[in-house]
Amino acid sequence: MIHPEGIRSDVDLSAMNTLALPGCSDYFSRFESASELLDCVEWAFAQQLPIRMLGGGSNVLMPPRVSGLVLQSGMTSIAIRSATKEMISVAVDAGVCWHDWVLKSLSFGHGLENLALIPGTVGAAPIQNIGAYGVEVAELIEQVEGFQLSTRQWRILSRQECRFDYRDSIFRHELADDFIVVRVVFSLRRQFIANISYAPLAHWAAEYLSDKNKPMLTPEALVSAVCAIRQTRLPDPLQLPNAGSFFKNPLVTGVMAAELKACYPDVPLYPARLKQQQKLAAGWLIDQCGWRGRGLGPVRMHQQQALVLTAPEPATLAQVQALQQAVADSVRARFGVELEPEPRIFGD
């Protein structure tokens, strides 16, 4: 059924989440402009329906049924806002594919290279504060623009107001299910400064620069290296359904980190934002518990990267949650560490 406003009912969402979990929405619409978004919002308000925003579906667990109106941005414009000799601000619509934007960003400025090939959309990036290989997107965000449902007003949130943290932001707390990201403004450096703090990238850079035919490390070369590293460690969702890194790297106190190091000398430890904390590698913990390449039913942890939960065969939310719980229980029993999943149940 097609509603006059372009809103469809009983829409299959299985192809709109990268784990390919079966799900169906009461109503669905993909808006192409701010005015279309407002029309959808007003219709949902009139019907007294909750509104759910869906990006690329790479960080969600799809339930069998999603109540209310599911919205997806089809807005894809990219425009320069301001520029100086050192920096350039670029406004990017929420519906732009994240990897496409990273590639396009090279023609404007620099800073996003390490975030290449992360699945999803630009609009979803600030919600989780995506990060990889020593870079978090929060470092490059100037502001986030969108529509707040509870006040029915357009809002512009500065980087500070977004309250970014490790895989976290205000959009997962006070503004959860209350803010529709319409546009993200990025502040990019004019000068390219390669971030090769991540060990595999540092190794790659050393080899790259040892080649006399390659005297300079270029942003294009860095992006290619990042993509190559990701492709060796993370499966393509189009070939093997998955939601990327399934668990957050847990933060522990310095005391607990020291105790773990004493018991397990090989445990990887990384600095955290707070000096009294350290970050553990969730993938290492899961691997030590014997879950690499193992699973329950149709879902399993990836053979090349134990942090990635995959669905090589058609699976349901309940089956994913069963493996999630089993892995978390194993890590808790052996290390006394709690694992928190990155993807969240869509619509909750």
TrEMBL record:
Its EC number is 1.3.1.98. One of its GO terms (molecular function) is UDP-N-acetylmuramate dehydrogenase activity. It is an enzyme of class 1 (oxidoreductase). SUPFAM superfamilies: FAD-binding/transporter-associated domain-like, Uridine diphospho-N-Acetylenolpyruvylglucosamine reductase, MurB, C-terminal domain. Residues 20-191 form the FAD-binding PCMH-type domain. Its cofactor is FAD. It catalyses: UDP-N-acetyl-alpha-D-muramate + NADP(+) = UDP-N-acetyl-3-O-(1-carboxyvinyl)-alpha-D-glucosamine + NADPH + H(+). Keywords: Cell cycle, Cell division, Cell shape, Cell wall biogenesis/degradation, Cytoplasm, FAD, Flavoprotein, NADP, Oxidoreductase, Peptidoglycan synthesis. Pfam families: FAD_binding_4, MurB_C. It comes from the Bacteria. The keyword Cell cycle applies. NCBIfam families: murB (TIGR00179), PRK00046.1 (NF000755). Belongs to the MurB family. Cell wall formation. This is UDP-N-acetylenolpyruvoylglucosamine reductase.
